Every structure is written in C-alpha cells, then in structure tokens.
C-alpha cells in the first residue's frame, strides 16, 4: 500500500551537501581524508522520512570508524560514504505514520544536510547531543554493564576527550543544584566539520562540540 507524503517546504534549489570519507587516515585525520560533495536531495519511500540536519554532534569515537575494521560496536564508514554521526533534524517529508513533517527528532543522519530514515533510529531530542546524551549513556553501559566494577577494584579512565568527560553519577541532580554547568562549542556550517573534528582530536575545543548545519 502506498501512502501519500506529508511535506514541509524545502529551501529553493536545495541540494544534499555531504562530507564523505575520502581516505583512511594513518594516525590523526587530515583535511585530505574528507571530501565535500553535493548530491540530489533523496526522496522518502513508504515507511521512510526525509530529515534535514540542523545540529550535528562531533565525537572522538568517529575516528575509530574511519579505520577499515571499525569497532566491535559499530561498522567502519565505507570509503566514499558520508561520515556517521548523531544529529538533531527536522522531518521535511514523511511517508511514515509516526513522524509528521515539521517534527524535530534525534537520529543518525550523519555529516550531511539531508538523510532518509525508517524511523527506527529516531527519538525526541532534548540534551541528547550533549554530556547527558549518547556519550553519557555509552559511558554508563561501559562502566556498569560491561566493566562491572567490584568493591576493592580500581577504575581507570583511559580516554575522556569528548562528552564522556562530562559524565558523572547523579549528574542530573548536580545540574539541578547548579553545581555543574554544561559548556558547548558550536561551529557554523557543515563545510567546517572536518577541520573542527581534527581540532577536537587535537584538544582545541572546550565543551561539547556541535556543528550547526542549518537554521531551524
């Protein structure tokens, strides 16, 4: 059964600007490992939505996905494909009954202006790109479910270069009491994502790093 599309206006002359993985880096990435590309805006099929990326999260784990082997929790980014990443997006065309056009969502749109989704990766946005979002959930699962520390053991944090560093027990209560303040670095423009990501890995940012891809 074919469903009619629920749509919101697209910008005049809209194209899908994407940051593609051009080469697999050795050590720290360089500008040559990325390529800015333009493609037609994709159209949703039945059960899909078209997302327009508003804010893109940049996180250190993305470096591991640039390697050919990827990681045990996520596959490698194929050469010539858009870099992966969590994003706050707006539904601009929908053929999915659960997500009307105009709705704000959190998903895995990646480093591109527009992306398709079947809805399986979408959720309501809140602080999801910050210190209380995906990286904090990953830190919690890694520590409590996988690490399972026991009394008398010592926990060593080997890497905390991204939003992991913002994760603490009872963070919500500390925030409510004003004892902790979240800091955020916001960069304008998808074209600046590669240089900003390289700077993240070199320690140039202070606070959670977000790229503003489009206006709301």
Automatic annotation (TrEMBL):
Domain of life per record: Bacteria
UniProt KW Ribosomal protein keyword: no
Species, as recorded: Fulvimonas soli
InterPro entries: ADH_N_2, GroES-like_sf, MDR_fam
UniProt cross-references to Gene3D superfamilies, sorted A to Z: Medium-chain alcohol dehydrogenases, catalytic domain (3.90.180.10), NAD(P)-binding Rossmann-like Domain (3.40.50.720)
One GO MF term attached to the UniProt entry: oxidoreductase activity, acting on the CH-CH group of donors, NAD or NADP as acceptor
Stated name of the protein: Oxidoreductase family protein
Domain Oxidoreductase N-terminal: 17-122
């Amino acid at each position: 059964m074919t469903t009619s599309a629920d749509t919101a206006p697209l910008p005049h002359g809209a194209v899908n600007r994407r940051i593609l993985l051009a080469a697999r880096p050795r050590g720290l990435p360089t500008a040559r490992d990325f390529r800015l590309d333009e493609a037609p805006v994709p159209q949703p099929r039945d059960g899909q939505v078209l997302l327009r990326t508003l804010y893109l999260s940049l996180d250190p784990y993305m470096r591991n996905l640039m390697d050919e082997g990827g990681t045990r929790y996520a596959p490698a980014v194929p050469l010539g494909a858009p870099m992966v990443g969590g994003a706050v997006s707006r539904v601009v065309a929908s053929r999915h009954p659960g997500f009307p056009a105009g709705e704000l969502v959190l998903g895995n749109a990646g480093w591109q202006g527009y992306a398709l989704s079947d809805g399986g990766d979408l959720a309501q946005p809140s602080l999801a790109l910050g210190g209380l979002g995906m990286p904090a959930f990953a830190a919690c699962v890694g520590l409590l479910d996988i690490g399972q520390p026991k009394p008398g053991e010592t926990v060593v944090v080997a890497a905390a270069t991204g939003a992991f560093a913002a994760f603490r027990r009872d963070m919500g209560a500390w925030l409510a009491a004003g004892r902790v303040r979240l800091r955020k670095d916001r960069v304008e423009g998808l074209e600046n994502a590669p240089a900003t990501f390289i700077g993240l890995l070199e320690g140039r940012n202070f606070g959670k790093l977000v790229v503003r891809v489009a206006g709301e």
